Amino acid sequence: MKQKSALVCLAVLAAALGGFYIYAHNRNITTTANVATGCRAKTVKVGATGNCVRDIQTMTDYMQTAELIECPFRSGRLLPITGTYDSATAAQVKVIQAWANCYYQQEGMNQNITISGIVDNDTWVELCNYAYNSPKESNSTVSPYTQASLAAGKNANC
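^ thats the sequence. predicted structure below, dont judge the formating
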């Protein structure tokens, strides 16, 4: 009888702990930790000015120089960090958007981002992945633009 009571108690305890784990896990899913904030929450296009534009320009310069071998940059160029989203910045953003689509295709992913020259959520994801997360995780020093890009990514809330 004692064994049966102990097993029942263990089963009840396991169920209670399992329920707590599911509750805690589901609670984490609904937090705002994964919601974009700061520059990452903004759509940036020609005419915009300020720090978010500087971050974009800095991160695109890193990607231009980072020797990303998956796909070549076509017609890309370095940008002056002016904080003004002009036609040159839009053109460089289009180069990054095209690069991302090439990468998706090479990796067999059925995903594309719009080549618009506008930095929307999808483009922020690419900038954050390749100009902030990638060099941060690999401690890359390939490009002289690495430290500036890491600072820009942090500022943009990557």
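Confidence is low (pLDDT under 50) at residues 1-33.
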